[in-house]
Every structure is written in structure tokens, then in C-alpha cells.
Amino acid sequence: MLERLNEALEHIESRLDQRIEVTELARIAMTSEYHFRRLFSALAGLPLSEYIRRRRLTVAGAEVLAGERTLLEIAVRYGYGSGEAFARAFRTVHGVGPGEARRTGASLSSQPRLSFRLVVEGNSSMRYRIVEKEQFQVAGRKVRVPLVHEGMNPAIVEFIRGLGQDTLGRIGALSDQEPAGIVGVSDNLDPSRAEGTELDYYHGVVTRAAVPEDLDTLVVPAGAWAVFESSGPFPLALQHMWRDVFTQWFPSNPYQSRPGPEILRTRLSPDAATADAELWLPVERTAT
Q1: Neighbours of 47 (CB within 10 A)
Q2: Partner of 91 at 20 to 30 A CA spacing, among 10, 27, 233, 282?
């Protein structure tokens, strides 16, 4: 798997001055476009689109300093429709405009080429199971919130605090299957998974029961789910579990993620310092 991902990285490098299709990168990696974006983000620590942008502007920066092409020629070569758009993007990455960089020979930033390799750390195993589920629905209350990679999500915390015990009791009573009880469900995430992009968060239950009209619902099609278990400091252990699933489990197992919500069942300790959790991710077997 990592070898194919590195072949996709080579494809990016050979086409920095051309249009790069994610569908082609996914074909090289022998996975779906959906899974490729998610796997890349987890392994690289930044979205695919951002990596490509930074690599293009790194190479463009070298051409700006070389002075062999006009700034407009460089802008067009790397996909910018105008010198102004190129200058804005250039300044965002390098902290200085291309004209000033050429005149003064300013120091520029550089996005190194990535290469993925397997690093074996420790000897712990990851607990998981595969569950086939028929169509079900998530029932509860929904809010649109920004994505937070580390630490508590203040928007979600405030949202849950405002629900009230009566509402939580009504929602909890609808639970009739795994994962049991109140769960947090993330859906409709931005493909980049970048910090600050928005997602739909449901605080609800998994159910096939009739749902009152005043509650929000999300219909989830039938399919396979990978269920991962974790125990540790809250919320850091949960966020690290998500990271480890994509950086360790997926590259080592014949599955890939498929479109669908992520479901997190969390049981906090009395002091809320630690938690036992189950992470449910929609998956499908990879082609052999």
C-alpha cells in the first residue's frame, strides 16, 4: 500500500505544472478517491489539495528567483489565471510577493517532497471487529460545527450543554441496536479534512424505531463497519485512535473507507479525565 502511495506522490511531482486529477492518483494507489484523500491527510498531516498547492508554489518560488521567466508566465504555468491571484497565493506561502522576492532575493519557504514509509512503534495491537449492519437511522439533534483536530471541540461542548436532560432522555430511549446509547455522529465533512472546515454533528442514537418529528434524522445505508476500541485520556486518546486507524490499520488490512458518517460511542469516567470508546467507521473490502 505504501509503495503505491509513493507512486502517486511521484505522479504529483511530474505534473506540478499540469492539472492533477485525484481520480488518477487514487487509481495509481489502487483505492477509491474518497479513501485516498482521507488516507493522505492522516499520513501527511495536511490535506492533499494543500500539499499540491505548497509544492507548486515551492517550485514556482525557485523560478521566480531564477528570473528566467516573467512573473505572468510563471503564474500561468502553475495554474493561476492572473498575476494577482498568483501573487496572493505566493504571499500566503512565502510571506512576500513574487515581485518583491525577485527584486530583493528574499528567503522563501519550501514544502519538502513527501515520501511515506512504515515505522513500527512498540508491540501493542489494535482491537477491532467488522460488523455488517442493515440500513438504520441516527435520531437526535444536529448542528453544523468546525472540525477540531486536537483537544475539545468548544462548539460541540456548548451544543450538548444546551440540549437539556429531558431531550437527552427522549433521545436515549430510542436506542435499539449497536452502538447502544447516546453517540456522537460526524457526517458531511469537507473532503480535505482541514482544521476549521465544517461538518454535521448529531448527538443522538442508532435506531430503527419511529422518530418524533421534532428530532433530526440521518438515514444510513446498509454496509460494513470497522469498530475500534480505545481507553485512555479524554479526548486525546480518541483523536489518536482516529489517527492510528488511518496511519496503521488501513495500510495493513484489506479494507478502505467508504462514504458515510463516523460514529463515536464514549463512556466517560466520573471525573471525565478518561474514557472508554468505540469508533465505528464505514468500510468496504479492497479489490484483490
Answers
A1: 20
A2: 10
